[in-house]
Amino acid sequence: MFKKHFFKILLGCLFSAALIWLTLRQIDFRKSFELIKNADYYILMPGVLIYAFTYALRAVRYYFMLLPVKKTRIFENFPYTVLGFFMNNIIPLRLGEVVRAKVTGERLGVSRSSVLATIVVERLMDVIIFVAFFFIIMIVMPFPEFIKRSFYVSGIVFGGALAMLFLISKNDEQALNFVSKLPMPQKVKSFVTKLFDKFTGGLMVLRKPAIMSSALFITVLTWVTESFFLVMVAYSCGIKISILGGIFVVIIIGIGAIIPTAPGYIGAVEFMGVTAFGALGVAKDHAFACIAIYHFLQIIVISALGLASILKEKISFADLFKFETAVKN
User: Fold this and answer.
1) Which of 311, 290, 293 is nearest to 301 (CA)?
2) Residues 6+ away with beta carbon under 8 Å from 200
3) Are the CB atoms for 56 and 108 separated by under 8 Å?
4) For position 3, what pLDDT does the model report?
5) Are the beta carbons of 16 and 267 closer than 8 angstroms?
6) Distance CA 291, CA 312 (A)
7) How big is the CA angle at 324 (ends 100 and 253), to the nearest 5 degrees?
8) What is the pTM of this model?
């Protein structure tokens, strides 16, 4: 799999390097380092617990997302949800999502393709909430036209993708019939048709208004909680921003994380975070110090939760890297 995606991985790493360079060239690194050294770490201690809590919220959300596929205990999928984010910090191109589909499917005894479909819906849901947040924030905070246009485009693209998946879920038989008629070798067609059939099973969540409403509510709560964590990190660095300002920075970073970069979104978080803080009038040196601490603590928390999940579930690292089979059933 790594050989197959070698050039994409290389491109992602190069893109991360370019973003890091673009970020560092804007700041006085010595000044930022002093700000990091003198940050109020007493504020950060409860902040770390608050950030860890966001993964519990994500697990609850995923409990609802999985209901049409399989009913589980409410926190049963917590280790598998965490492992997806943990692996995104180790392997590039967001392949941690594929690992999450593999592990969840194996441990819960459901189709990995169906699980992957629910994860796709989950990611689209995140972006839709980002766009909705932006329009709310835009009422009270002025932004340059290019930022507004970017969110308009994001809303149309990702909203359209979600609408398309909904139409496929509503007309799964017709969609499957269309796929089965595509000109392909019979062996390939049989595999693709089987895969598509199981994938559409995971889209059933889109046809459950009560489940989607619950998942959307938890999504909002998750990102507000993460934004509060960012506000606490900002305060520790002497930056005073409102919760709306924190939400703005977090959604800009979230949009940037869509870009395929090196593992852990290195470069994307720093560049997008400093850019977002700049739009709020925060000096770049202060912004970089805040984002560096914020990103470092994120990696520490997810690494600790990921390792704990591996030990609890008795999963080997070798098994986690066998993601090439993740969507074969």
Assistant:
1) 293
2) 117, 168, 169, 172, 175, 176
3) no
4) 56
5) yes
6) 31
7) 45
8) 0.87
Q: What phi and psi, each to the nearest 5 degrees, are found at residue 251?
A: -70, -30
pLDDT value at 327 more than 50: no
- Report the alpha-carbon angle 85-91-94, nearest 5: 55
DSSP one-letter code for 265: G
> Is the distance from CB of 323 to CB of 113 less than 8 angstroms?
no
Buried b (16+ CB within 10 A) or exposed e, 64-92: bbbbbbbebeeebbbbbbbbbbbbbbbbb
Cα 93–Cα 96–Cα 101 angle in degrees, nearest 5: 125
In whole angstroms, give the CA distance from residue 268 to residue 258.
9
Q: Cα-atom radius of gyration of the chain, to the nearest Å? A: 20
- CA 195, 197, 200: angle at the middle one, nearest 5? 105
Give the pair of three-digit tokens for residue 307.
Answer: 């390792």
Scanning 26-74, the segments in alpha helix (DSSP H) are 29-37, 41-66
145's CB contacts (< 8 A; 6+ apart) are none
Q: What 8-state DSSP symbol labels residue 111?
A: -
Burial class (CB in 10 A: 0-12, 13-18, 19+), 145: exposed
pLDDT per residue over 269-324, tens digit each? 999 999 999 989 999 999 999 999 999 999 999 999 999 999 998 887 777 776 55
Task: Assess whether pLDDT exceeds 60 at residue 328.
Answer: no
pLDDT tens for 16-35 read 888 889 888 878 888 899 99
Question: What is residue 161's predicted lDDT score, i.e. its pLDDT?
Answer: 84
Structure tokens given for 232: 């606490």
Q: What does the block give as tokens for 90?
A: 């180790």
